[in-house]
Each structure stands twice: as structure tokens, then as C-alpha cells.
Structure prediction request, 598 residues.
Amino acid sequence: MEHANSVSPWVSLAYLVAGVCFILALRGLSSPVTSQRGNRFGMIGMAIAVVTTLVTHMPGKDLNYVPARHPEYSILAFAPDWLTVAEIVGAIALGAAIGLVTARRIAMTAMPQLVAAFHSLVGLAAVLVACAAFLNPLAFGIAEMVVPMIGDPFGSIHPVSRIEMALGVAIGAITFSGSVIAFLKLNGTMSGKPILLPMRHAINLGLLVAIVALIASFTQTQSPASFWTITVLSFVIGFLLIVPIGGADMPVVVSMLNSYSGWAAAAMGFTLHNSAMIITGALVGSSGAILSYIMCRAMNRSFISVIAGGFGGDSGGPAGAAASDRPWKRGSAEDAAFLMSQAEQVVIVPGYGMAVAQAQHALREMGDKLKAHGVRVKYAIHPVAGRMPGHMNVLLAEANVPYDDVFELEDINSEFAQTDVAFVIGANDVTNPAAKTDKSSPIYGMPVLDVEKAKTVLFIKRSMGGVGYAGVDNELFYRDNTMMLLADAKKMVEEIVKALD
Amino acid sequence: MDFISILSIFVLACFVGYYVVWSVTPALHTPLMAVTNAISSVIIVGALIAAAAVGLGNGGTVSKWLGLLAVVLASINIFGGFAVTARMLAMYKKKVR
Prediction:
């Protein structure tokens, strides 16, 4: 057991190298050109961490093992436990098979669900590791063996390790149950509508206080009852936190859970005194936190208001219905094709609707046809378009749209005034001019794409009845320069492509 | 390592993370989430220690099996996360001129 405690400097160095590899992996993502090399750095780092652990924690019988027939080999005899080695290799192989098959088969439009599901696995793994460390603390080198006068000997866990362990299990459990709910909502298994329990803020606050109190008591007593209660309550609070949050706020939730999974890894890294885990946890934790911040800023909402949930319930229903008798123009695929083929510049604004309709390939085909007509085609992406950060970029990349045709909000917003046609496909709230003018609107102050400044706006929408996620009517529909194309996004784009020939 | 040196690593890594992540281009935010997910599965280190350990009585046996289960879960993430990131990144292409 002693080898778990006395760490050779080479081992620490190996974990440090792994940590640096992870930093380089994220650094590579600063540009699509270097990103693939970055990903390889990530794999190398992980391989180093895993191999180092396997070598230093080779399963085997006690170091002072004395073979019965050959007592002369008793000193430093280490008998590897091949059964356990096989079990571990089997476990890794099983996980690898599941992971690789899933990664290969998953549709790009299902990426948000997949990421949520993966987060839940990290959370659950953190819980399991924390439980294992609690049950067998001596193996992790975080406890002193105590032989009491009465009863069996047990490992008394160091007080600092108790805090780290309790935090790790709590954050891990919240990540797990929260991600499961996020997965169900993103996957459509569960309605994206927020589910509001009465008194939910009081319940959540109460649970949080209870968890903190239990962690405090656990550090004093190392009581198993406190430990398991912390675990259970954390599962419950993770569930309760995500249930009231609506579908389009999922970019924030997914990034937040990403952050949590990092903090869980960091907490376990503290417990195990492992620099690779701490560096990774800090990286992932700040990554998720920054992404949540970017998403919140892009919606002009505070993180607290997103997490409090309930946005986009049925509050905006009547407002949407009242306005729908205003006059609006309807266009056909032929009109759209004509307008765009005559244009000098067309800016395409994709949103979640494009992902739902799987229209990205048809859209790229349309872009190619327009380019053949001599039209400049650009894509404008709002940071919260879709169900996770960068969702639209991945879908456009999948459809072979070159990434230098794709622009972020701040880079393209000034160009709409010189644009002939803005083509909005499956986006709504992110184009609503009310965010700039109407102080009473729930989305007031949110940065939006200035599509209304284009000479003509073509807006693909399934029907006039529905409103966007924020539950507000979009005054863009009733403008003189807007033409509504009412159809399924993919069908409409395919018809436009036909009309362009 | 004592607590303060670990804490130092953690705090400095938070700052590194802050600057590195701000330099990630928004177009790659989805691959960023996938790859951070893969690397946060470095928690497999803890799972491996648990799975390989020889324990005291029942706690040790349970701990070992929890560790093995965690190894499976973390491996799904590691292999799945890196593979799906590689798949996404391979799709980002520059304009052919």
C-alpha cells in the first residue's frame, strides 16, 4: 500500500506533462488550422496520465508477500494480480468500444444531447471515484490507519481530504442528474418547456444549506450517513435545478454543466494530490464558466436569471396572439430565388430551426448556386443560435460550408446595411428589432442581428402562428421589406434551389 | 504535496484556462465542449487507483467495483469525446480558391 503514498518525482512529472498537453489541446482550438493538432495533444496527455497511473498502481499482492515454498524470495516480491489487470483492461476496452461507436454514429444535429450525456458520465464517474475513495481511503493515500480498542481497524481520512471528497461527490452528483435532465430535454424525450414547481427557490435553497451543513459535519465526524445523504441530496438538487429551465436556455445549462464536470475533476484531483487532474479541472471549469458567460451576455440576461429558470413559459402567449392580425407579405420559393439571384450580397442567418429541419446541406447547395450566379454569400451566426455554443458552426461545417464564409455577430452586423437579401432560416428572437427599441420586451437589450437593415428580408418559418422561444412576437414579420416564406425550412430551401436552376 | 502547493497549481491553472479559453474562436465552441469533456475524464486516474487497490474487507471490494464501473464510464468519455472532436474538426475546411 505504501507505494500509493510515496510518489516518485518522475510520476509527478508525468502528470505535469499530461496537464500541459491538455492546455495545448485547448490552445490548439484558437484556429481551425491548429485544432486537429490540439486534439492529438489531448489524446497524448490522456495516454500519459492513464499509463502512469496503471504503472504506479499496478494491482498486486502486498509488497511484503512471502511465497510459501520459496521464502528466499520474500523481500520485495511483488506478485501482480493479473485478474485485476485483465478486469481493468476489459473495462477500458468496453468503454472504448461504446465511446467510439457512439462518436462514429451520432448525427451532427444531435451533438448537444451527446455532450450532455457525456457530461453526465463524467459526473457519475466523479461520484463513483469519491465513493470508492470514501470506502477505501487507505488505497488513495488520504487516511491514517487507526486501530481502535473495540471494533475493526479503519482508515481515518485527513480532514482536508474529507472536504475535497465531499465537494467532489456533491459537484459530481449535481453534474450527473443535471446533465441527465439536460439530455432528456435536448433529446426531446422530455418537453423543452420549463416545469415550474411551487416554492422551488425555497426548496433549492434549503437543499443547498442542508448539503453545506452536512459537508461541515462530515469533515468533523467522517460519518457514512452524512456522506451518503450529501450524495443523495446533490442528485436531487441537480435534478431540481435543471427541470425549470427551458429548451433555448440549454446553451447556458450545457456550458454550466461542462464547468461543473471540471470542478468535480478538480476536487477529486485535490483529494488524490494529482496535478494532471487539478490542471484539467481548472481548465474545464473555467472553459465552461466562460462559455456560460458568453451565452448569458449574448442574451443580455444574468446567469442567476437563467439558472432561476422559467423563462419562455406561457407568459408571452397572449401578446403573440394579439399581434398576428397585422398585415404581412407572403412569398414563394420562385420569388425568393429571383430576389437572391439578382442580389450582390446575401447574408444567411441560421438558427435552431435549421438544425431541426436538417436543412444545412440544402442550404449549402443554395449558397453554391447563388455563388455560381455571382452573388456574394455570407453566413451570420448569433452566439446563442442553436442549443449549444457553436452549434450552427458545426452544422455548416458538416455541410462543407467553408469556415471563412461564416461570421460572428459583431463581425457582420455592420454589413447588413450593404446587404441586398438577409435570408433568415430557423432563427427568430436573435433577429427581433424589438430588442433594440421596445423597453417592455422581455428580450430588450439582447444583442441582435440587424437583418432589418438589409434591402429585403426573407424569413423562413413554418407558420405565422408560433412565436420564438422568448414568447414575443417579431415585428420584423410585418415590415415592408420582409417577405415570409411559410414552409418547412428544408423543403423551402430545396424548392429555392430548384427555382435557381 | 502539501495543500498550499496543490492550491497554487489550481489557481494558476484557472488563470491559464481563462486566457486560453478566451482565445478559442467562437466557431469552435462545440468542439471545445467535446474536448473539455474528454479531458475532464482524466478522473479515470482516480477510478484506476480504486480498481487496482487492495482494500479492507467489504469496503475494499465495493470500492474496487465502483472503481471498475468508473473506469468504464470515463473510458466511454475519453474515447467518445476525442473521436467525436476529431470528427468535428475534420469537417472545418477553408474556402477552396
Summary: Chain B touches chain A through 85 residues (CB under 8 Å). Chain B has four helices and no strands. Helices of chain B lie at 3-22, 29-40, 44-52, 57-89. Chain B has a mean pLDDT of 89.
